[in-house]
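Next comes one such specimen:
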Amino acid sequence: MAEEAGVQEEATRMGAEAVIPESEWKWVGTAGHFVLADQCRWRLHTHVGAYCISSVGNLRDQQGDGPCRLDGAGTGEGPEMFYETMVFEEDGTLEKYGPLTLGEDRYETTKEAQAGHMKMCRKYAEIDS
């Protein structure tokens, strides 16, 4: 809860004018995507109008080791990505999401992931759904 409050304060500080004000965003306590989300130690999930913005990261394997990459096995080229944000259109029930990802991004650090989640929330808040 404290983490969500900090994220919300950051969005307010950014001062973005939005079609959907932050006061109408719905913060959800579980991950909104990813079959192994229960093994991720970091999650943010926000509904902004008709959009689900879900971020996960710090995935641990079944032995508790990790973190594991969220960008596939990787080729050894480029940065290792341990966090991701995905955006889906939702049906209004907060339970069902469309099959297509409308947007996504990946990050190396928790700080980058948190900022990226808020950036996606602000982006989709500016879209009249």
